[in-house]
Amino acid sequence: MGLARTHSVALVGLAGSLVEVEADISSQLPGMKLIGLPDAALAEAAERVRAAAKNSGCALNGHKLTVNLSPAALRKHGSGFDLAIAVACLAADDVIPADSVAGVVHIGELALDGRLRPTPGILPAVIAAARVGRRTVMVPTGNADEAALVPGVRVIGVASLRDALIWHGAPLEPVDVDVLRAPAEDERVDDTLDLLDVIGNDEAILALQVAAAGGHHVFMLGPPGAGKTMLAARLPGLLPDLGPAASLEVSSLRSLSGRPVGRSLITRPPLEAPHHTITAAAMVGGGTGQIRPGAAARASHGVLFLDEAPEFSAAVLDALRQPLESGQISIHRANAVAHFPARFQLILAANPCPCGQYGAGRAGPGDPECSCPPQARRRYLARLSGPLLDRIDIQLTVKRVSIAELRLAVDGGRLSSAVARERVLAARTAAAKRLAATPWALNSEVPGPWLRGVDTRLGGQVTAMLDRALERGAITMRGYDRILRVAWSIADLAGAARPGPDEVGQALYLRKGMTS
Amino acid sequence: MALKDEVGRRGEDCAAEYLLEAGYTLVERNWRCDRGEIDLIATRNGDIVFVEVKTRSGIGYGHPFEAITVAKLARLRRLAGTWCRQSGLRARHIRIDAIAVINRPGRDPLIEHLEGVL
Prior knowledge:
The complex is a heterodimer of chains A (516) and B (118). Chain A has 516 residues and is α/β, with parallel strands linked by helices. In chain A, 46% of the residues are buried. A five-stranded mixed sheet of chain B has the order 1-2-3-4-5, with helices on both faces. The A-B interface holds A 27-30, 62 and B 63, 65-66, 68, 73, 98, 114-115, 117.
């Protein structure tokens, strides 16, 4: 026959495109030529395929093999094409029927002994194959569970090239091999973090619930040991389970980052807490050749927590402005543009000054005092740029827990995460119902004109406090809208149909509750 | 004579016999100059064919063709030019072929012929 073709998938960001893998045998001295813009890892496929085929009991033809990856102009990365190249070559040599090979999408990296290694990015690749109407996908056994998460696709998990050839009808005896699997689940969302652990800080707990209900970003300011990190780590626990589309997206990003996905889609919102030395490329994504998602993309549909926010470099923080605005990250290269979703909830935490003690003392002898000059204090928080802080609806001060609060806490009356999540879910449902006729689902997404529209405008009495603040110049018009949004979230959380003066007052406090 | 030379010699005999049967006329065997050696030179229908013969007594160390590298072919191409100048023969076409001989002990030799490998 001399010629055979099959399909595989090339990924650019989360978007995949179907790649046709053609193999041709010509009467030339032995060799394998791989064409169609492969990167370094892919160009080495020739050696892997040759060794794997030999060790699977059917060596490649002793003539010249030309393998073309089409569309030829699209850059292809990684080792996921090995299986497709191997079966195309063997089908061209009539070891297996070419028509059987043509109807299947093959993804997977080969080991030299012919076994298939788990390959990153299987989930988005299978989604892409399904989107263009491919119904049968052959993947490594180690990825079969992950591939099976895509509805409407027949997944064939094979442990080795030999198994793949037998499936396609090669007259070989099956040989049992040890299946290569990805390293076991390293991290799962920690369910042990409960709001019950938080003592005192009632307003911060309320702020977290409001943030969860409305999808608002939060900035917490407080001295070391006040519980900022503890509070932020508990926000994902308050968020409701992910919807089908969101969980597919979160799982795809996880798969693309090379982390195991497991047997079921990820339904809990992710938490990303990068260290403050992170680079802009690690935050938004990038890399030479293959474009990989960054922390902001991995936090999509979840929480991005930046502890010690002023310590982050200004470039990193400002790189977040585009995703905060559009919910998407676009990374441009000369030959491709990769888009990643980045609809995360941002939590910033900061000390009030470099030494951290400013405003921490409770005015008693022996309390620690701030040793920073006022200029250093001002410069420290000025590292968070105005445009960034402007996008953050809830800004509050977290105080250290006092001995009185610690004693009170023993008596109970604290809120558990499960209860809080119920409340958040109810609030989100109410908001979604109210916004059903609009393109938005969360209070934080609603634009100003809607807030001040005929049906939704709050009465003069309700907003009196807010109007006064605006008049005094304490808040801007944009800030006014943001406070209204938070007020709606507070009302949803309280089960009220619309915000009253109390809710607006609370919202104003959550926005302007900073002492500095 | 070392054993490997013996194997190569027998393989070249087989290849020469094969070419004669295929209607070629042998012009030269083991033509040497200071830059190397051409195993076989044959003609048919006015074409001059320079043949590299590679012999193995099994395929445990790979197919004989796999041992014919690009560098070896390039050398053969240069030698072909030298030979043409020295012999003064004018050919319609020249061609470089490769012949693999697998000479398993106690069995008939297996011959594969690739035409125009360069």
